[in-house]
Design brief:
With 452 residues, the protein is α/β, with parallel strands linked by helices. Helices cover 40% and strands 27% of the residues.
Length: 452
């Protein structure tokens, strides 16, 4: 193809036509470069073509920047669509996630229907996982940033890797003195698991897969997907001995829904690497890749370090209560699901479908805590509702729920005093823990500590 291009351009110059074209070349050191050639013909006194003169400019950097901008635009558009779809899915998932747990407790042990309940739960969990990937892509997934150690997450990932054949070797090389990073553990877990699945697919479960961590100082580094700024990082490397990534495919690998799997293979969602990219960016990190066709691929992830220490976590139990709770949600299914879960925990539950009705209800019927949906398109949202309630009841407790995080509104509600954010679909465990944590919280009023 390159030869044909050069021949055709030379033929034009022989006709007296100046030519401009881009060409990809491989340098003597094996580096890929893109050049812009601007060449004009030369003729002798008898108008015979005797050669050409012109300029050649290396535009590799400019082309990489253009590709990065186009990739960002594609990710933004795909993320917008994915976020909306995931929000709708979350509402539909609510009964699938919540009701099996309630049904199980109503059935005797060894009842034949229990196996079907387990199938429903497994399927719902898988759908929820895909939905979480869509939410992550849409930058609407909510997670708290806390100090964590990458080695701990990798150890957990390894435990979740099943059905490893004898033809595949998985090895870890984890730094003993690895610095902590700040992030969401479940999102980082998803990133590493996606990279492992991607590597296994590339090797068809035949070869060597290595996961490595190290403390890494970047002085000057330029990668395929942008420059990594100078600084201190924890670097994660996932390498495989698979088929490698061809140069013509490399610019597309982070695109949402891009996959090289054919219809004869088990197709994935095509979200794997785009999710990796989205999560790494959300953690102020960077991604780079090295690959050689026929030899394998290495993915490098750079996460900024933190010097904050890890917090010890105590397992939380499912504990209910008898307090009064008002559920505010514009979706009838969500209200019904939340109501059933809360009544199962022993609470006295009321429900309304809008912020306006919630305000009127609370004025006449004081509540111990509110369960507020954040997004209610047909009226005032959760944050605005809470703000209006606080005007006549400054000590009102509340918990925010939503299918995705609208950062501004959620942050506003949390700053107003809302105790926690719970992501839909709700489960008995998550709602129970959040409620008791908020209801049992100490309050400081005029420097006097009291319990509500």
């Amino acid at each position: 193809r390159k030869k044909d291009l050069v021949i055709s351009q030379t033929a034009k110059r022989k006709k007296g036509i100046s030519t401009k074209y881009e060409l990809e070349i491989i340098t003597a050191k094996g580096k890929r470069k893109i050049i812009n050639a601007s060449i004009s013909p030369r003729f002798d006194d008898k108008n015979n073509y005797i050669g050409a003169f012109g300029s050649i400019i290396d535009i590799t950097g400019r082309k990489s920047l253009q590709e990065a901008v186009l990739r960002a635009q594609r990710l933004e558009e795909a993320g917008r669509v994915a976020g909306q779809v995931a929000h709708d899915f979350n509402n539909l998932l609510a009964p699938l996630m919540a009701y099996p747990e309630i049904i199980r407790e109503e059935l005797p042990e060894n009842h034949p229907v229990l196996q079907y309940i387990e199938e429903i739960e497994r399927s719902a969990e898988q759908i929820t996982e895909i939905n979480q990937q869509l939410l992550t892509l849409g930058r609407r997934g909510h997670y708290s940033l806390e100090p964590l150690n990458l080695n701990d997450i990798i150890t957990n990932v390894i435990k979740h890797i099943h059905m490893v054949p004898e033809t595949l070797t998985i090895e870890t090389d984890l730094s003993d003195n690895l610095m902590n990073i700040k992030g969401g553990s479940s999102q980082i877990f998803r990133v590493i698991l996606n990279l492992v699945h991607n590597a296994r697919d590339a090797m068809m479960d035949v070869g060597h897969l290595t996961i490595k961590t190290e403390n890494y100082y970047v002085d000057k580094l330029s990668g395929k997907f942008g420059r990594v700024p100078r600084g201190e990082y924890v670097r994660l490397t996932v390498s495989d001995t698979g088929s490698g990534i061809p140069d013509d495919i490399m610019p597309k690998i982070l695109d949402p829904f891009f996959t090289t799997k054919t219809t004869t293979k088990k197709r994935g969602s095509g979200l794997g690497l785009s999710i990796v990219h989205a999560v790494v960016e959300d953690h102020n990190g960077y991604i780079d890749v090295e690959s050689k066709v026929g030899e394998g691929t290495k993915f490098y992830l750079y996460f900024p370090i933190t010097r904050e220490s890890l917090e010890e976590k105590v397992p939380e139990q499912i504990v209910g209560g008898t307090e009064n709770i008002l559920v505010v949600d514009d979706d009838n299914v969500q209200r019904e699901v939340a109501s059933k879960l809360l009544k199962k925990l022993g609470y006295k539950v009321s429900t309304v479908e809008s912020g306006e009705k919630a305000i009127d209800f609370i004025k006449k019927n004081p509540q111990d805590i509110l369960l507020l949906d954040m997004i209610m398109p047909d009226g005032i949202d959760g944050a605005e509702t809470y703000k209006k309630v606080l005007k006549f009841n400054p000590s009102q407790k509340a918990i925010i729920i939503s299918g995705y995080k609208e950062t501004e509104k959620v942050e506003e509600a949390l700053k107003l005093g809302a105790g926690a954010f719970i992501r839909k679909p709700l489960t008995l465990k998550t709602i129970a823990q959040a409620l008791r944590k908020e209801l049992d919280k100490k309050e400081t009023i005029n420097n006097v500590v009291s319990y509500k």
